[in-house]
Specification:
Blueprint (H helix, E strand, L loop, with lengths): L1 H23 L3 H7 L35 H8 L18 H12 L3
Helix pairs in contact: 2-4, 3-4
This protein binds heme C.
The site of heme C has 24 residues, from helix 3 and helix 4.
Amino acid sequence: MKNLIRTSILPMLSVMLLAPTAALAETGPEVFKSQNCTSCHSVTKAGISRDATPDDKAKDLSDVGARHDKKWLAGFLLKKNDLEGEKHKKSFQGTTDQLKTLATWLETLK
Ligand code: HEC
Protein backbone atom coordinates (compact mmCIF):
# COMPACT_ATOMS: atom_id res chain seq x y z
CA MET A 1 0.00 0.00 0.00
CA LYS A 2 2.82 2.37 0.90
CA ASN A 3 4.47 1.53 -2.39
CA LEU A 4 1.29 2.14 -4.30
CA ILE A 5 1.02 5.60 -2.82
CA ARG A 6 4.61 6.42 -3.63
CA THR A 7 4.59 5.10 -7.18
CA SER A 8 1.12 6.00 -8.40
CA ILE A 9 -0.86 8.35 -6.23
CA LEU A 10 1.85 10.89 -5.38
CA PRO A 11 3.01 11.41 -8.97
CA MET A 12 -0.62 11.72 -10.06
CA LEU A 13 -1.30 14.31 -7.38
CA SER A 14 1.71 16.40 -8.32
CA VAL A 15 0.72 16.34 -11.98
CA MET A 16 -2.77 17.50 -11.04
CA LEU A 17 -1.37 20.31 -8.91
CA LEU A 18 1.21 21.50 -11.44
CA ALA A 19 -0.79 21.24 -14.65
CA PRO A 20 -3.13 24.22 -14.18
CA THR A 21 -0.28 26.70 -13.56
CA ALA A 22 1.60 25.43 -16.58
CA ALA A 23 -1.50 25.83 -18.72
CA LEU A 24 -2.09 29.40 -17.51
CA ALA A 25 1.37 30.79 -18.18
CA GLU A 26 1.54 32.29 -21.66
CA THR A 27 4.73 32.47 -23.69
CA GLY A 28 6.05 35.71 -25.21
CA PRO A 29 4.76 34.92 -28.72
CA GLU A 30 1.33 34.04 -27.27
CA VAL A 31 1.08 37.38 -25.47
CA PHE A 32 2.29 39.16 -28.61
CA LYS A 33 -0.58 37.62 -30.58
CA SER A 34 -3.26 37.88 -27.90
CA GLN A 35 -2.46 41.59 -27.40
CA ASN A 36 -2.84 42.20 -31.14
CA CYS A 37 0.71 43.40 -31.69
CA THR A 38 0.40 41.57 -35.01
CA SER A 39 -2.07 44.16 -36.26
CA CYS A 40 1.03 46.35 -36.83
CA HIS A 41 4.24 44.34 -36.28
CA SER A 42 5.67 41.10 -37.55
CA VAL A 43 8.44 39.03 -35.95
CA THR A 44 9.67 37.16 -38.99
CA LYS A 45 12.39 35.41 -37.03
CA ALA A 46 9.76 33.74 -34.80
CA GLY A 47 7.49 32.92 -37.74
CA ILE A 48 4.96 35.63 -36.79
CA SER A 49 3.55 37.65 -39.65
CA ARG A 50 1.45 40.78 -39.40
CA ASP A 51 -2.20 41.07 -40.30
CA ALA A 52 -3.54 41.81 -43.75
CA THR A 53 -3.80 45.57 -43.31
CA PRO A 54 -0.64 46.50 -41.41
CA ASP A 55 0.55 49.87 -40.19
CA ASP A 56 3.41 50.44 -42.63
CA LYS A 57 5.37 52.54 -40.19
CA ALA A 58 5.63 49.70 -37.67
CA LYS A 59 8.78 47.64 -38.03
CA ASP A 60 9.46 43.97 -37.96
CA LEU A 61 10.68 43.24 -34.43
CA SER A 62 13.03 40.33 -35.25
CA ASP A 63 16.09 42.13 -33.83
CA VAL A 64 14.44 44.54 -31.38
CA GLY A 65 16.45 43.08 -28.44
CA ALA A 66 19.63 44.38 -30.04
CA ARG A 67 18.32 47.93 -29.65
CA HIS A 68 16.46 47.86 -26.32
CA ASP A 69 16.52 45.95 -23.04
CA LYS A 70 13.42 44.54 -21.32
CA LYS A 71 13.15 47.42 -18.86
CA TRP A 72 13.02 49.98 -21.65
CA LEU A 73 10.64 47.77 -23.66
CA ALA A 74 8.17 47.41 -20.77
CA GLY A 75 8.26 51.17 -20.15
CA PHE A 76 7.80 51.94 -23.84
CA LEU A 77 4.79 49.61 -24.07
CA LEU A 78 3.25 51.49 -21.11
CA LYS A 79 3.96 54.78 -22.90
CA LYS A 80 6.46 55.89 -20.28
CA ASN A 81 9.49 56.08 -22.61
CA ASP A 82 9.88 57.80 -25.96
CA LEU A 83 11.34 56.43 -29.16
CA GLU A 84 12.94 59.30 -31.08
CA GLY A 85 10.69 61.75 -29.27
CA GLU A 86 7.49 59.79 -29.78
CA LYS A 87 5.45 57.54 -27.52
CA HIS A 88 4.25 54.14 -28.73
CA LYS A 89 0.99 54.12 -30.63
CA LYS A 90 -0.68 51.56 -28.46
CA SER A 91 -0.92 51.41 -24.68
CA PHE A 92 -0.42 47.90 -23.29
CA GLN A 93 -3.73 46.43 -22.11
CA GLY A 94 -2.60 43.12 -20.58
CA THR A 95 -1.55 42.18 -17.05
CA THR A 96 1.81 42.97 -15.42
CA ASP A 97 2.79 39.30 -15.78
CA GLN A 98 1.99 39.38 -19.48
CA LEU A 99 4.03 42.54 -19.90
CA LYS A 100 7.02 40.94 -18.15
CA THR A 101 6.75 37.82 -20.31
CA LEU A 102 6.46 39.92 -23.46
CA ALA A 103 9.36 42.29 -22.66
CA THR A 104 11.60 39.38 -21.59
CA TRP A 105 10.90 37.60 -24.86
CA LEU A 106 11.38 40.71 -27.01
CA GLU A 107 14.77 41.29 -25.37
CA THR A 108 15.93 37.85 -26.60
CA LEU A 109 15.29 38.84 -30.25
CA LYS A 110 18.74 39.79 -31.49
C1 HEC B 1 -1.43 50.60 -34.15
C2 HEC B 1 -0.19 50.00 -34.58
C3 HEC B 1 0.70 49.35 -33.52
C4 HEC B 1 0.37 48.36 -32.63
C5 HEC B 1 -0.97 47.68 -32.44
C6 HEC B 1 1.58 48.05 -31.91
N1 HEC B 1 2.61 48.84 -32.35
FE1 HEC B 1 4.53 48.78 -31.72
N2 HEC B 1 4.99 50.37 -32.90
C7 HEC B 1 4.14 50.97 -33.82
C8 HEC B 1 4.85 52.03 -34.50
C9 HEC B 1 4.26 52.91 -35.60
C10 HEC B 1 6.15 52.06 -33.95
C11 HEC B 1 7.29 53.04 -34.32
C12 HEC B 1 8.01 52.60 -35.54
C13 HEC B 1 8.83 51.41 -35.23
O1 HEC B 1 9.92 51.54 -34.65
O2 HEC B 1 8.40 50.27 -35.53
C14 HEC B 1 6.21 50.99 -32.97
C15 HEC B 1 7.36 50.66 -32.26
C16 HEC B 1 7.47 49.57 -31.44
C17 HEC B 1 8.70 49.14 -30.80
C18 HEC B 1 10.07 49.80 -30.93
C19 HEC B 1 10.72 49.21 -32.15
C20 HEC B 1 12.15 49.62 -32.37
O3 HEC B 1 12.69 49.12 -33.34
O4 HEC B 1 12.72 50.38 -31.62
C21 HEC B 1 8.39 48.02 -30.08
C22 HEC B 1 9.33 47.19 -29.21
C23 HEC B 1 6.99 47.75 -30.28
N3 HEC B 1 6.45 48.69 -31.11
C24 HEC B 1 6.33 46.67 -29.71
C25 HEC B 1 4.97 46.46 -29.82
C26 HEC B 1 4.26 45.43 -29.07
C27 HEC B 1 4.90 44.41 -28.16
C28 HEC B 1 2.93 45.56 -29.39
C29 HEC B 1 1.77 44.81 -28.79
C30 HEC B 1 1.60 44.96 -27.37
C31 HEC B 1 2.83 46.65 -30.34
N4 HEC B 1 4.07 47.19 -30.56
C32 HEC B 1 1.65 47.08 -30.93
C33 HEC B 1 2.82 50.62 -34.03
C34 HEC B 1 2.11 49.66 -33.33
